[in-house]
Amino acid sequence: MNQDLVRHWQNIYTAKQPTELSWFQAEAETSLQLIESARLTADAQIIDVGGGASVLVDHLLMQGFEHITVLDLAEAALQRSQQRLGVNADQVNWLVANVLDVNFSAAQFDLWHDRAVFHFLIKEQDRQQYLAQVLHALKSGAYLAISTFAEDGALKCSGLDVQRYSPQQLIDFFGSIEFDVIHQGKALHMTPAGNQQKFSYVLLQKK
């Protein structure tokens, strides 16, 4: 694991409250809509990649999902969520890891959710490794819900460069051979500081 990257995110989550972070959402509206479109059953295996201190896991638990994994590089981020959830945190599988390095089981997940991790992968080698992880870990018929900065969105986040995408560019990268397109679109996120951030999103289903 890239220790410099780990320290970077650890420092961010240690220095600030989750509500002070630019990506904070009181409700993960777009993500929840995409997941609802997948029509998963309560026993579905769901992974939230880069879930950190996001409240998405809270909503998934409230909706009755029984098998949720939240992955993040920063242990401090996951600890924020665990503290927020209290005893309910025991219902979640917390994974401190770089998504590129995890030895996922084959066909492990029914849904892979990623809001704003993929766009940090600015090296093609890393993007291809991410794609390989997705294809390996998703079941046939499973879903990929992914969101990134839009092609006209921010150039950086938390001091790091990002790769921006239109919905079509996301579709092209993950591939029509491997996935069917269920939904695509754009969303505006309002940061706690009152700034707008432009996002692209897709919901794809693995063939």
UniProtKB/TrEMBL annotation:
Domain of life the protein comes from: Bacteria
Residue span(s) of domain Methyltransferase: 46-141
Gene3D superfamilies: Vaccinia Virus protein VP39 (3.40.50.150)
SUPFAM superfamilies per the UniProt record, alphabetical: S-adenosyl-L-methionine-dependent methyltransferases
InterPro entries tied to this protein: Methyltransf_25, SAM-dependent_MTases_sf
The name this protein goes by in its record: Methyltransferase domain-containing protein
